[in-house]
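Record minuted for everyone:
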Amino acid sequence: MAPPETKDPPVMAVTEGPDSSTGKGLNSKDSTRTVSDYARRRYRLGTHVKSILRVQAMKTAPGRFPGDVYRTIDCTWVRIAELSMVRPMDRASYHYKGLVTCGNVWVCPICSAKIQERRRQEVEQAIAWAEVQERAGYVVSFTFPHRLDQPLRELLKMQRDALHHMRKSKGYRALMERCKDAGRIRSLEVTHGQNGWHPHTHELLFLDPEVPAQWLRSQLVPLWLKSCRKVGLFRDDRDNEDDFARYSVDVRAGDEGTADYLAKMDDQRQWGLSHEVTKSSSKQGRRAGSHPFNLAENSATVDLFLEYVDAMKGQRQLIWSRGLKDAVGVHEKTDDEIAREEVAKVADQIPVSAEAWEVVLGNDARWELLHAAETGGRPAVDEFLILLGYEESGHLDGVQGEPLR
């Protein structure tokens, strides 16, 4: 069974703050949204993304199962084991166990939410380690001029080359030595705006706390300009050097910097996590353009979303400098491994039969079933399935069938 092809996807803007479902975006002052609201949006958006990818898979690979072309199509949809809803010991919410997970942090709203939260915890662990090492967190953001006609894949390669060139330069290495660099965590972000694709990075540097932020910025700007010139991201016949110096590098230090970095990890990435949006990251979000999920929601920009899906294959969202994870004590895990992780201690587990799951999928009620479990446990789940038309809701723990396609 495939995801339904919704002709009129729900009006959503999960990339734009608490009041996103109304389209009001980051300017909204409504702060009443709950964790459950964000989860509902993730599932609704996920269904819409699946529909887009399914159509594309049928066009590009008509002889294959769509889920074999794009794993996100099968994610939290296809059963691979006995299916149940699980509530961890320390949480009120439930999640599914026994479904396919894709581990795609760029494209899948469901997996990305789990991955983002885990990565956020790892970054917090690094921040705590840095404090013991008497280092402060500095968030350095690097951007560059970009035009509407430039393909995302091309920009990502040029950006990667420019960063590599800058880090290998004598000037950068000398600067980091002077700042007593103890490591960095780099995150990649991609948005789209009136000037086309806008890939940019946010780096959390652990440096001597006495380093002045504006002085650091003044040292980084010429190094970044030289590297962008070398790879063609900055051209003297096209770009303005004063504008580059003004906008290409941003540095924030201390508590403001680390808090802002963690906010970007959650909200600036816009995977729909329920953490509060800081004022600074909200401003950056408006400046940087729309997250590609917005492109998926607009029928006029679906082709751009598909370009993004293709270009982001193999891209890593977070990269730690060599040796930093070992020093911090963070165990290396891939996004896919994190997406498939199960909790060790379970407070409650409600089995779902193969027949009941077909009814749930037919109504695209995955989030609603979880919500029923959260609000009333097994009795509420039975009642909800009856409302969906499942007549044998008193026998939810029957034998599971083969995975559905």
